Amino acid sequence: MRRVHHRHAGSAFPFSCSASHPAGVTSILPEHRARRVAELHLRGPLGPLPVRILWPAATDPPPPIAVLGHATGPLADSLCGDAGMLVVWAGEVRTPEQLAVCVEWVADRGAELGGDPARLLVAVIG
Predict the structure, then answer these.
(1) pTM for the full model?
(2) pLDDT tens, 89-104?
(3) CB neighbour list of residue 35: distance below 8 Å, 6 or more residues apart
(4) Would 14 be classed as within a structural domain?
(5) How many separate domains does the chain show?
(6) Between 116 and which of 5, 19, 23, 62 could a Cys-Cys bridge form, CB atoms 3.0 to 4.6 Å apart?
(7) Who contacts 100 (Cβ-Cβ below 8 Å, separation ≥6)?
């Protein structure tokens, strides 16, 4: 399991915060059904782009990855908890350039995140 940083680090995974759920699930918010949740900021064309990563309970074999732009939290939780996908949720994506930043980052680092970048779903809702 990766170390979670409390400040934005210069690494590929500058996680900002993480807390433990009483049931042993690592999560930022207790309502998440993910095994682990982390928040980070990607360098985007309009400044920092906040994303939330949700890891499913089962990761063997590596799960498919969903990149969600302009979607809702319940959809991200459902894809992670019900469909078993590693979800990269960029709820503040507003432009095609911002979405491209997310997709390229996930395609380059999907395996490091524990997912299968060969099975990548990209969806923009709204």
Answers:
(1) 0.74
(2) 998 888 899 999 999 9
(3) 25, 26, 55, 56, 57
(4) no
(5) 1
(6) 62
(7) none
CA atoms of 76 and 86, how far apart (whole Å): 9
Residue ranges of alpha helices (H) inside 1-126 are 73-81, 96-113
For 20, 63, 70, 107, the CA distances from 17, given in Å and listed in that order, are 11, 23, 22, 23
- Lookup: tokens for 83: 């469909």
* CA neighbor of 18 nearest in space, from 34, 117, 10: 34
Asked if 93 and 40 count as a contact pair (C-beta separation under 8 A), the reply is no
CATH number at residue 69: 3.40.50.1820
Q: Answer yes or no: is 87 within a domain.
A: yes
CA 121 → CA 27, 45, 88, distances in Å? 23, 22, 10
Residue 31 lies in a domain: yes
Does some domain include residue 6? no
Domain that holds residue 82: 19-124
